[in-house]
Design goal:
It contains 9 helices and 26 strands. The chain is an alpha+beta fold. The chain is globular and about 95 Å long.
Length: 670
């Protein structure tokens, strides 16, 4: 909608206030940096005919600015701040998800002050404040400048639902220097009493009416009559229409009526839904090494399906997520097609197919650990991925080669992994090869599962001496990641389970057993912005069918270390032999909780406590040998993720346990 300039209103008792919702108020005009201009409330800076600033920087009236907001109930102000933070987070999430973006991926600008407290809003809007270093030539000019702020603040109050507010200006000539004092009394906040849609040609018959109600669009009756929320609701209405076959829907008008007797407002929105539209043919340009079947397999619609603008953006996002393309632009006609069939044009730019990277982490018991990888994301043109990872530390040297080949249309892929291992820890030593060949697929609602064959060969050295192990496993996995970030989750949860029946031989003696493990973590934001986070995790596992002494040492359960119970050495939490070396067990149980508390925008302090147990029985017995660790961590947030520094103490320390442990890495502990 084109932006319109709103002139100041000097009458606060008019029942009809259309100026409140003009697109210039909070509809995306201008830029966020020019705060007043972004709200449509500030004219360009006054200039002389020569083009120079009208107010000289020397020789004028030096002054100070004092802005005071009075009469707000403290509880109401706190509640408004809480709701404002929640709305700001919701808008940021909608922008990130492309809910209000175009099919080319561009996003509308978000006004950073749309949900700011009133004092912050006024301070940012104030021309008096902004031009303090450009003194006016006289006190009369200072008053004119202040009167401009009065008009700006009155408009800002109305945009927040304060239609009976009062703004007063006083120039204190006796102060040294003179003070421009503005006092704002917002008055009662008006409520939204009605929100209706006036359809140009009747309500679209092919859209569920429940999707178009004010509540479904985030506009509950009784909420504050705020311009930003009404405009956001209108955007959601157009988004809903665009997702249900009406991509050419447009808003043609808006009428707002304010009732001062009931302190409420009713809004009527004029909508022209346009014609019903279906998907047409899709053309693709820019493919070089990537086969067309890869793109076709990612397309979430077929010709003839009901047009959904959201699918356009998800298609683009899925293409970019493959890592095969550096750019993906989707274009559709700007006017309705005559036959109601929308053609889609995709233009891609292929990105570099190879990448290389490395990382370092450190813990007291393991020492420094170097991780490096090389990856090819389009080995044969089908989007198949070959990845090689190298992990080197004082206790572990591991080379992992992994190949994945995705299905051209379904969300599944075949995989093969070959891993060469050399490990020397206090628990055992091993040298050998592990392999796994199978298929992973989506199961719906975010769940993924896999089935594989896993033959392996190893030479093990444990408390029984050196032994050779030949095993064949059949891993079955099930997982769901509903968290919001890989390295810094702040809400949601993760859960994964694995069951592996094994059969084979150790030193010629046949052995069969079943190993099962379940891991989970949950992240609960304690504030609307998700800066305060309570995080918890748990782990439980069991081996059935073989005694601890006959189990290969690498198939037993261990606990302790940076990814387990912090405060104890790597794998050192369970039972120990006479030399203080861990023996492992047939079952494990772990739990931990941490509170991520922000100190500054970039730094958080994280107290944590964790506990665990290793048992020789097939099921954990939490009444015995439960050991606890606790500590304090520091997080420094970088563009790559949080830098983690943890110090932990074993609260049930034994002679073999060190007095403390230190952990350094990138990413949260879990």
């Amino acid at each position: 909608m084109p932006c319109r300039k709103i002139g100041p209103s000097h009458t606060s008792r008019l029942p009809l206030v259309p100026a409140l919702f003009a697109a210039a108020l909070l509809g995306g005009c201008g830029t966020v940096n020019d705060v007043g201009r972004s709200l449509g409330l500030v004219d360009e800076e006054p200039v002389a005919e020569s083009g120079e600033p009208l107010f000289a920087t020397v020789g004028g009236v030096t002054y100070t600015t004092q802005i005071t907001v009075e009469g707000l109930d403290p509880e109401e102000a706190a509640e408004q701040q809480r709701l404002a933070e929640a709305r700001a987070e919701k808008r940021a999430r909608e922008e990130k998800e492309g809910a209000t973006g175009s099919v080319t991926g561009s996003q509308p600008q978000v006004d950073e002050l749309a949900d700011a407290p009133l004092d912050e809003l006024f301070d940012s809007l104030s021309e008096l404040r902004r031009l303090e270093d450009r003194p006016p030539p006289s006190l009369a000019a200072l008053r004119r400048r202040g009167q401009g702020d009065v008009e700006l603040f009155q408009k800002a109050l109305r945009s927040r639902g304060y239609f009976d507010g009062e703004v007063r200006l006083r120039i204190d000539r006796d102060a040294e220097p003179p003070a421009a004092q503005i006092t704002v009394r917002p008055g009662p906040r008006y409520k939204l009493a009605g929100w209706t849609v006036d359809w140009a040609a009747g309500q679209p018959p092919l859209v569920d009416a429940e999707k178009l109600t004010p509540k479904a669009l985030g506009l509950p009756m009784g909420a504050a009559a705020e311009a930003a929320e009404v405009v956001a609701g209108e955007r959601r209405l157009l988004t809903t229409l665009g997702a249900n076959g009406y991509p050419f829907a447009r808003q043609t008008g808006r009428r707002a009526v304010v009732d001062h007797d009931t302190r409420s407002m009713a809004v009527t929105v004029d909508i022209d839904s346009g014609p019903f539209t279906r998907f047409g043919d899709t053309s693709v340009e820019g493919l070089e090494d990537v086969l067309a079947t890869v793109v076709e397999g990612k397309r979430p619609w077929q010709p003839g399906d009901t047009y959904d603008a959201g699918k356009i953006e998800s298609f683009r996002a899925d293409l970019l997520a493959t890592g095969l393309f550096s750019s993906a632009v989707i274009e559709t006609p700007e006017t309705p097609p005559a036959d109601g069939s929308m053609p889609v044009k995709l233009t891609v730019v292929e990105g570099p197919p190879r990448s290389i990277g490395a990382g370092v982490r450190y813990s007291t018991t393991v020492g420094p650990e170097l991780r490096a990888f090389w990856e090819h994301r389009n080995l044969t043109g089908r989007g198949d991925k070959l990845r090689t990872e190298l992990d080197i530390s004082p206790v572990l040297q591991e080379l992992d080669v992994n190949y994945k080949r995705p299905h051209p249309r379904e969300d599944r892929f075949n995989f093969g992994t070959v891993k060469l291992i050399n490990e020397d820890t206090d628990a055992f030593q091993q040298t050998g090869i592990e392999t796994r060949f199978g298929q992973e697929r989506a199961l719906g609602d975010g769940w993924r599962g896999s089935l594989a064959l896993a033959p392996e060969y190893k030479i093990l050295d444990d408390e029984k001496g050196e032994r050779t192990s030949y095993l064949l496993g059949v891993p079955v996995t099930l997982s769901r990641d509903a968290s919001d970030s890989l390295l810094d989750p702040r809400r949601g949860y993760r859960i994964s389970g694995e069951v592996i029946p094994y059969t084979g031989a150790i030193e010629g003696a046949a052995i069969s057993f079943l190993r099962a493990e379940l891991n989970g973590s949950i992240y609960v934001p304690l504030d609307e912005l998700g800066r305060w986070v309570l995080a918890g995790r748990g782990r439980i596992g069991s081996v059935a069918g073989a005694a601890t002494a006959t189990l290969p040492a690498d198939k037993r359960f261990y606990a302790g270390g940076g990814g387990s119970v912090r405060g104890y050495g790597y794998r050192m939490l369970g039972p120990l032999d006479g030399d203080g070396d861990p023996l492992g067990g047939r079952s494990v149980a772990e739990a931990g909780v941490e509170l991520r508390m922000p100190v500054t925008q970039d730094i958080s302090v994280v107290p944590f406590i964790e506990a665990g147990q290793i048992s020789e029985e097939p099921w954990p017995d939490l009444s015995t040998n439960l050991r606890t660790g606790a500590g304090l961590g520091l997080r420094y947030y970088t563009p790559l993720g949080p830098f983690r520094f943890d110090v932990a103490l074993p609260l049930d320390r034994r002679d073999a346990d060190d007095p403390y442990q230190i952990y350094i890495s990138l990413g949260q502990a879990f």
